[in-house]
Amino acid sequence: MTETRSRKAAAGSIQVVEADIAIVGGGVAGCLAAVGAAEIGAKVAILEKGGIIERSGSIAAGVDHYIAVLDEGEEWDKPGYLLRHVPVVTQGVTDLPAAARLIYGLPGMVKRLEDMGVDFHDPDKPGIPYYRHRAFGLPGEYYINFDGRHFKHSIGRAARKTGAKVFERVMVSEVLMDNGRPKGVVAFNIRTGAVFFVLAPTVILAAGDANRIGENASGFPFDSWHIPYNTGDGHGMALRVGAQLANMEFTDSTVSPKGYSTQGLNAFVGAGAHFINVNGERFMFKYDPKGERASRAALVNGVVGETLAGRGPIYCDCTHLSEEEAQHLVRTLGVDRPALPDYFAQKKINLSKEPFEVTVGEIATVRAGALFRGSGVHVDADAASSVPGIYAAGDCSSMNAAVAGAAVMGHVAGQSAARFAQNQPRPEALSKDEIERIHEDMVRPLHQEEGITFRQFEDEVRHIVTHYIGYRREEKYLQEGLHRLQLLREREKEMIAENYHGLMRVNEARNIRAVAEALATSAIERKETRASAAHFRVDFPDTDDENGRRIIMVEQGAEGKLRVSSRQTGLQVDVLPEVPPEILAQEEEAV
Amino acid sequence: MTVIPVVIDENICVEKCTICDVFCPGDIIYRLEKDKPPVVMYPDECWYCGACALHCPVDAISIIFPPEMLDCQTTVASLLEKPEL
Ligand SMILES: Cc1cc2nc3c(=O)[nH]c(=O)nc-3n(C[C@H](O)[C@H](O)[C@H](O)COP(=O)(O)OP(=O)(O)OC[C@H]3O[C@@H](n4cnc5c(N)ncnc54)[C@H](O)[C@@H]3O)c2cc1C
Ligand code: SF4
Ligand code: SF4
Question: Which of A329, A317, A347, A404 is nearest to A108 (CA)?
Fold first, then answer.
C-alpha cells in the first residue's frame, strides 16, 4: 500500500522552482535571512518543515528574554565593551571577527524588530521602556525581559511580506551540488509527498540546533529541553556537501525537574532557589564560587558530580519563597514553556512547601556551552561557510547567541548570500534523469519492505552519546563510541518509513547520527577539560590554555570518514583586549 | 501502552478551526475533516510544549503528563553509567 501511495506522488507532483537563494528553515535566522536578502532585491525561497513560519521552530510558543546592546549611554552598553569581554565569556575559543559582526549588529536589530511589531516592554514593569538585567555571566545588563509570546508571529509575517516564496510543511532533505558549488535543494511535503526542487546558486542553512541525541529521565526521546524537531539537519547537510563544522565537542544540557526536560532553570535560580543533595547540603559552592548563580554548564556539572559521588538524589529547594511568590514564579515559567505550569499543577507540588527532585537533562548540540560561539557549520563574519555559496546562521552555525544572535547573523547571511548570488551564473536545469534519480533516492525508505524504524536507529545513537561520550569523557569510551557510530552509518539504509511524516523522521535520524559522529570525533581531539560540563575529560581534567585555545573543525572526507583540523584563536582571557582596528574598520563599513 | 499527551474536548472545539494543527511545531495534531475534531496522530512524538493549548481560541486542549514524567522512577545515576569495555 505504501508502495502505490508514494509512486502516485512521484508521478504527480514534482515541481521545479527557481530562486536566487534557498533558505533551509523558517525559524528566527531563516526569517531574518529572508528580510536581509529582500533588502538587496534577491528572489528568495524559504522552506520550513513546520506548519507555518509565523509559529514554527524553537520559539513557536514564545520567548521571555532577549540579549541586546542598546548604546544608551552606560559604558557596558556599547558594542565594543561587550566584544572585549567575548574572549572571557568563551574561554578564548571563538572567532572574534564573527562575534564582532554579531555584537555590532545588536543595537540595529532591536530597532528593526520593533519596526516589525515586536514589543520589548515587560508587562510587569509598565513604567520603563526596557526592563534590563544581568545574567549568564555577561558583563552588563544585556537581558531584556519581555512577553515574547508573539515574537515569532511578528518576524514570520515580516518575512512573508517580503514576497519570498514560502514552502511550509516542506522538509529539505539535501543540498544539491554542481562542481563544488550549490545548485539548490530538494525537498518534500511531509504530508502529501509533493516534491520540490528549488534551483538556486546560494543556500542558507538555518535549520536550528540538534536534539534527540541523548537519553533523558522520562525515557521519551521527544521530551527534550530544546525543540526535538530540530535535529541537526543543517549540520548533516553541510557535512554531506563538504562544509566544515566547528566546536562540535561542546555540548549543552540543563538541570530540569526529573521526568520533564524543560526551560526554567534561570527563573528558579533567579528566584533564589538552592540545589541540595540527599544530605540537605547546598553543594554548588564546592563546584563554583558563584554557587547557584554559576553558568548553566557549571550547574549541570555540579549535579553530575554529586550524583556520581553517591550524594543523589538532588533537589531544587524554593521553600524560602512565600506561597504567592512561588505561584508567580510558576506563572512566569509559562511564557517560555506554556505547559510548565500545568506540569507543576499535575505533579501536585507546592514549591513553597517542599523541594522537588531534579536531574541533568539529555545531552544536546545547542550553542557550544557559551554565548558568542556555536557548535555547527563554521562561518566567518559574513556568515559564509567553507563552501562558496553556502551560508549558515542561527543555532546550526558556529556563531550564535540565542534569538538575538540568530536574528543578527540570519540578516547578515541573507545580505551576504544576496550579494554573492548577483554574480553567479544560474544553475543549469536538471535533466529528467537527474530528477528521477534524486527523487528515487529520497523516497527509498518508503519502498523498503523490511528494516528498522527511525526510533530503533536513534535509540542506538542516544545510547552511545549518553554512555560512551556523556558528561564525563574518557579516551577509551570515546574511541569505542566513535567506532559504533561509524558502524551505525551502514544501517542508515535499513530505515523504513510508512508515510511522508515518517520519511521526515528517517531523514532526521540520519542527521542525528551525523551530529553524534562529529561530536565524538571532536571530543577525542580536545584533550583537556573546558567550559565545565560542556566538555569534561576525566583523563584530562585540567584546562590546557597553552594548546586548548583552538577551534576544532571536522569535515567529511573520502568514504564518509570525518577529518579533523584545528586553528589557534590567539585570544587572551586574562587581559581585556582592545577591539582590533581591522575589526573596527570592518564593522564601520558593514554598519 | 501509548501515552496520550494532548486531550481535546470535542464539545467545544470550533468547526473549521485548524490552529492546533498548523501551530504544532512537530506535525503531531491533524485536523483532517472540518466537522470532526483534530486527531493526535503521533502522540509519542509530542514535545509537551503546550503551544497547541496556548493558542486554542476556546481552551479545548489540555496537556496531560503521564506518570513517567510526573512521578519519574529513573535514577539519575543510571544516565551517567559507563558501559563495560
Ligand atoms: C522553548 C524555548 C525557549 C527559548 N527561549 C528563549 C528566550 O527567551 N530568549 C532567547 O534568546 N532564546 C531562547 N531560546 C533559544 C532560541 O529559540 C534559539 O536560539 C533560536 O530560535 C535559534 O534560531 P534558529 O533560526 O537557529 O532556530 P529555530 O528558530 O528553531 O528555527 C529552525 C527552523 O528550521 C526548521 N527546519 C529544521 N530542519 C529543517 C529541514 N530539514 N527542512 C526545513 N525546515 C527545517 C525548523 O522547523 C525550525 O522552524 C529558546 C529556545 C526554546 C526551545
Ligand atoms: S504540546 Fe506541542 S508538540 Fe505536543 S501536540 Fe501540542 S503543540 Fe504539538
Ligand atoms: S485549536 Fe482548539 S478549536 Fe481549533 S481545532 Fe484545535 S482544538 Fe479545535
Answer: A404
